[in-house]
Amino acid sequence: MAAAVVRSVGSKLSRNVREIRIHLCQSSAASQGVRDFIEQHYVELKKANPEFPILIRECSGVQPKLWARYDFGKETNVSLNNLNVELPGLWSL
Protein backbone atom coordinates (compact mmCIF):
# COMPACT_ATOMS: atom_id res chain seq x y z
CA MET A 1 0.00 0.00 0.00
CA ALA A 2 2.70 2.50 0.93
CA ALA A 3 4.58 1.80 -2.30
CA ALA A 4 1.44 2.57 -4.31
CA VAL A 5 1.00 5.83 -2.40
CA VAL A 6 4.63 6.74 -3.03
CA ARG A 7 4.21 6.13 -6.77
CA SER A 8 0.94 8.03 -7.05
CA VAL A 9 2.13 10.97 -4.99
CA GLY A 10 5.56 11.01 -6.58
CA SER A 11 4.87 13.23 -9.56
CA LYS A 12 2.40 15.48 -7.71
CA LEU A 13 4.61 16.66 -4.86
CA SER A 14 6.13 19.77 -6.36
CA ARG A 15 2.82 21.10 -7.70
CA ASN A 16 1.33 21.69 -4.26
CA VAL A 17 4.10 21.31 -1.69
CA ARG A 18 7.48 23.08 -1.71
CA GLU A 19 9.26 21.00 0.95
CA ILE A 20 8.66 18.01 3.21
CA ARG A 21 10.42 17.57 6.55
CA ILE A 22 10.14 14.43 8.61
CA HIS A 23 11.17 14.73 12.26
CA LEU A 24 11.83 11.52 14.16
CA CYS A 25 13.76 9.93 17.01
CA GLN A 26 16.52 7.47 16.14
CA SER A 27 15.55 5.01 18.87
CA SER A 28 12.02 5.56 20.24
CA ALA A 29 9.23 3.06 19.65
CA ALA A 30 6.93 5.94 18.61
CA SER A 31 9.18 6.63 15.60
CA GLN A 32 9.64 2.99 14.51
CA GLY A 33 7.04 3.13 11.74
CA VAL A 34 8.57 6.32 10.35
CA ARG A 35 12.05 4.75 10.39
CA ASP A 36 10.66 1.69 8.58
CA PHE A 37 8.92 3.88 5.99
CA ILE A 38 12.10 5.85 5.31
CA GLU A 39 14.15 2.67 5.01
CA GLN A 40 11.70 1.03 2.61
CA HIS A 41 10.40 3.96 0.53
CA TYR A 42 12.69 7.00 0.69
CA VAL A 43 14.81 5.99 -2.31
CA GLU A 44 11.77 5.36 -4.52
CA LEU A 45 10.17 8.65 -3.45
CA LYS A 46 13.40 10.59 -4.05
CA LYS A 47 13.95 8.97 -7.46
CA ALA A 48 10.46 10.07 -8.49
CA ASN A 49 11.22 13.63 -7.25
CA PRO A 50 14.99 14.22 -7.62
CA GLU A 51 14.78 18.03 -7.33
CA PHE A 52 12.20 18.08 -4.54
CA PRO A 53 13.47 18.74 -0.99
CA ILE A 54 12.61 15.82 1.29
CA LEU A 55 14.40 16.44 4.57
CA ILE A 56 14.87 13.85 7.30
CA ARG A 57 15.59 15.32 10.75
CA GLU A 58 16.60 12.98 13.56
CA CYS A 59 16.71 14.17 17.15
CA SER A 60 16.77 12.15 20.34
CA GLY A 61 13.42 12.15 22.13
CA VAL A 62 11.48 14.12 19.51
CA GLN A 63 7.91 13.11 18.65
CA PRO A 64 7.68 12.01 14.99
CA LYS A 65 5.99 14.54 12.72
CA LEU A 66 5.71 15.30 9.05
CA TRP A 67 5.90 18.99 8.11
CA ALA A 68 4.85 20.29 4.71
CA ARG A 69 5.77 23.77 3.50
CA TYR A 70 3.58 25.33 0.83
CA ASP A 71 3.76 28.55 -1.19
CA PHE A 72 4.17 31.79 0.74
CA GLY A 73 5.79 29.94 3.67
CA LYS A 74 2.59 28.32 4.93
CA GLU A 75 3.34 25.15 6.91
CA THR A 76 1.24 22.33 8.27
CA ASN A 77 2.19 19.27 10.24
CA VAL A 78 0.75 15.92 11.16
CA SER A 79 1.79 13.60 13.97
CA LEU A 80 3.34 10.31 12.88
CA ASN A 81 3.37 8.95 16.44
CA ASN A 82 3.14 5.13 16.58
CA LEU A 83 2.18 4.72 12.92
CA ASN A 84 3.03 1.53 11.08
CA VAL A 85 5.17 1.34 7.96
CA GLU A 86 2.15 1.84 5.70
CA LEU A 87 1.65 5.32 7.25
CA PRO A 88 -2.09 5.67 6.62
CA GLY A 89 -2.99 9.28 6.07
CA LEU A 90 0.61 10.36 5.50
CA TRP A 91 -0.29 12.33 2.39
CA SER A 92 -3.52 13.83 3.70
CA LEU A 93 -1.94 17.19 4.38
UniProtKB/TrEMBL annotation:
PANTHER family: NADH DEHYDROGENASE [UBIQUINONE] 1 ALPHA SUBCOMPLEX SUBUNIT 2, NADH-UBIQUINONE OXIDOREDUCTASE B8 SUBUNIT. The keyword Acetylation applies. Its main location: mitochondrion. This is NADH dehydrogenase [ubiquinone] 1 alpha subcomplex subunit 2. Keywords: Acetylation, Disulfide bond, Electron transport, Membrane, Mitochondrion, Mitochondrion inner membrane, Respiratory chain, Transport. The gene is ndufa2. It comes from Xenopus tropicalis (Western clawed frog). Accessory subunit of the mitochondrial membrane respiratory chain NADH dehydrogenase (Complex I), that is believed not to be involved in catalysis. Complex I functions in the transfer of electrons from NADH to the respiratory chain. The immediate electron acceptor for the enzyme is believed to be ubiquinone. Disulfide bonds join 25-59. InterPro entries: NADH_Ub_cplx-1_asu_su-2, Ribosomal_mL43/mS25/NADH_DH, Thioredoxin-like_sf. SUPFAM superfamilies: Thioredoxin-like.
